[in-house]
């Protein structure tokens, strides 16, 4: 182990997701030998993300103002709403270029083993949005794994009685995986081939 600041940095980096002790050490020494201007930029980016980024008050995507870029765009359809688990899923779907509606970010999926139930997700907020009557189709784009399927089933049961058409992305997505890991073409096709549930 090292002393002082370098060890503190290794410890902090090691707490990040996907960063093991060896990577933490390699990154810490990379930072130590990097140009001071580069390190300052990194430190500023870290500070700013906590200061400036918040959640869109309509869809709960990440935003730097009251509403996110997508909710502020008047060209996007109000009639189709796509439900995803996380902001990174919005990015994955946007990359396909297949979708011109709006999003609703749940903030996770139903997972009884981890104590995450419907009340821990932004489902109440979703129901409030649907209550306005503008949405004609709800696309359930939760992850193709057990939790994502459970969440989609739960939402379909709640939303169908409201007379809104409910669809789920077509198969072909890697089962058990994360939406964000699907390539653009596969995800784009799954979107086009979505089916009513
Ligand atoms: Zn938004």
UniProtKB/TrEMBL annotation:
Keyword annotations: DNA damage, DNA recombination, DNA repair, Metal-binding, Zinc, Zinc-finger
Domain Toprim positions: 79-174
Family as reported in the entry's similarity comment: Belongs to the RecR family.
Function: May play a role in DNA repair. It seems to be involved in an RecBC-independent recombinational process of DNA repair. It may act with RecF and RecO.
InterPro entries assigned: DNA_Rcmb_RecR, Rcmb_RecR, Rcmb_RecR_Znf, TOPRIM_dom, TOPRIM_RecR
CDD domains xrefs: TOPRIM_recR
SUPFAM superfamilies, alphabetized: Recombination protein RecR
PROSITE patterns in UniProt: RECR, TOPRIM
UniProt zinc finger (C4-type) residues: 56-71
Stated name of the protein: Recombination protein RecR
